[in-house]
Design brief:
about 500 residues; mainly alpha; two-stranded antiparallel sheet; 15 helices; disordered C terminus
């Protein structure tokens, strides 16, 4: 079978479209091609490692919380929870920038323009190094102030400062590793990022109890050990990934004359930031909506809050397939946009929606069948919170299938550079519809108004996203200005009147 039909199994493939090289030279290598081969199979094979990486990240957080809670107590667990909230907000600020760079790289790879892909990588890497160093320095110095602003409980502050400072030291490696992984996915390789995520998580989990309690030659660092294990895992995975890419002479590595691409392109940097900010703000909107609902839930007492907290833990895993499929759809669609293959965009979206319905639907069904058994893993067998959590799942879980379809549609439209409409849709559906529903209908519905606000928000977001996908102008959007001459067809099924790839830029 052609290598192009198995894009995620190799970090690059030999390009069959390039001129033949002299016999004394190896054939020119190109990143994996997501513009050819069976769409459904290619998308699924590409998405599975992304899903695996997401699962590893969530399990890493859960396992670390277990170690900290059992070895150091509740105050330490509270400290890590507060510090991790800060980390989430920091990662959210650069998440969108990484996604914008990934789409640019994917479009360039689809156009088989390696120089443009390297130019994007060099400029974006400069930004990530600079902003990560700034975060690390300022965060380390002002960690106590940040925790004070968060209202961290007094008994947890000293522990949280030690842990957060260690986490801030890990931020540069964390950001750069995440950036390289997303770029590789944009280039058609999702397997390599999964393997190095496994390395980072494995080291973190292995070293966590060792560095907390001290073992053999390792000192007992207490809660700082939990942060140190994250630092070691991220640095080790980053260094190993860079070494692998250069040893294998990956086609997107910057070496020799290509080092000039590290000189920032102002135009590219403006584009990455302008397109990245709306995608990063989507995380802020989601977090803001969750905080609003949490403030309403807390008013119903600790049992209801505990039930919601446990249910939300389960929802994290239920939503993972949709997030992985959305990321895969975005990379695959972006490559096809760059390759001028608009005839494949609609089929990619349909395949993504189908996989989401099947995979997310299966997890939702399992949650309905086995939720009481799973809930007893988190709550005492006789706890009233188990029944409350079960009722919450009954009202909420099915809506994640709908929201999953929305995320897949978002994955397609952002592949062309349409990043603001998804943000607007989330503001309307989550901050307005969901919050107003939960707040305004508590009189007649009581606490059920909060749980039913999830389906209300999901239905709204799906209707708006589907309407924009069908009638919106996302096919006319672009990451960078194109040469004048036309636009892609409104249907997305015919051949466009001009190339949608990224042009050369200095």
């Amino acid at each position: 079978m052609a290598a192009a039909s198995l894009p995620s199994e190799l970090p690059y493939v030999v390009s069959m479209d390039q001129p033949s090289a002299p016999d004394t030279l190896p054939p020119r290598r190109m990143p994996a091609n997501l513009t050819e081969g069976p769409i459904g199979r290619t998308l699924l094979v590409f998405a599975l490692p992304v899903l695996g990486a997401n699962v590893l990240q969530s399990l890493n957080g859960s396992v670390n919380a277990v170690f900290v809670g059992r070895l150091l107590g509740e105050a330490a667990l509270t400290a890590t929870s507060n510090a991790n909230l800060v980390l989430f907000l920091l990662l959210g600020t650069v998440f969108g920038i990484g996604m914008a760079a990934t789409i640019l790289v994917a479009q360039a790879v689809g156009a088989r323009d390696l120089d443009q892909a390297k130019r994007v990588i060099g400029t974006s890497a400069d930004f990530f190094v600079a902003i990560s160093a700034l975060f690390a320095v300022l965060g380390y110095v002002f960690a106590p102030n940040i925790l004070h602003w968060l209202g961290t409980p007094a008994d947890a502050v000293p522990l949280a400062v030690s842990y957060l400072r260690m986490i801030f030291l890990a931020v540069p490696a964390m950001n750069l590793l995440s950036f390289l992984m997303t770029v590789l996915r944009g280039a058609g390789d999702s397997r390599t990022p999964f393997l190095f995520m496994a390395l980072a998580v494995g080291l973190d989990v292995l070293l966590n109890p060792i560095l907390i309690t001290g073992w053999g030659p390792f000192p007992a660092l207490g809660i700082a050990g939990a942060g140190a294990s994250t630092l070691v895992g991220q640095v080790a995975a980053l260094v190993a990934l860079i070494v692998l890419l250069y040893r294998r002479k990956h086609p997107l590595r910057l070496a020799g004359a290509d080092l000039a691409f590290f000189r920032p392109s102002p135009r590219l940097l403006r584009t990455v930031i302008a397109k990245g900010i709306p995608m990063g703000l989507q995380m802020v909107v989601i977090s803001g909506s969750a905080l609003i609902l949490m403030s309403l839930i807390n008013a119903y007492g600790s049992q209801t809050a505990a039930a919601y907290g446990v249910a939300a833990q389960l929802w994290t895993y239920v939503q993972m397939p949709a997030l992985a499929i959305s990321a895969a759809v975005s990379s695959m669609a972006a490559q096809n946009v760059g390759a001028n293959r608009w005839d494949r965009i609609g089929a990619i979206t349909v395949a993504g929606v189908g996989f989401n319905v099947v995979l997310t639907g299966a997890l939702v069904a399992a949650l309905y069948l086995f939720d009481r058994s799973v809930l007893t893993l988190f709550l005492p067998a006789g706890s009233d919170a188990i029944g409350i959590a079960g009722d919450i799942n009954t009202d909420v879980a099915w809506s994640f299938v709908l929201f999953g379809v929305t995320t897949v549609l978002f994955g397609t439209v952002r592949a062309t550079g349409a990043v603001t409409p998804p943000l607007v849709i989330l503001v309307i559906s989550l901050l307005l519809v969901r919050s107003l529903f939960a707040y305004g209908l508590q009189g007649p519905l009581g606490v059920d108004a909060i749980w039913l606000s999830f389906p209300a928000g999901s239905v709204t977001s799906l209707v708006l996203a589907a309407s924009y996908y069908r009638w919106g102008g996302w096919r006319r959007q672009r990451m960078l200005d194109r040469k004048p001459g036309g636009e892609a067809p409104e249907t997305g099924l015919g051949m466009p009147r001009e190339r949608a790839a990224i042009p050369e830029t200095s």
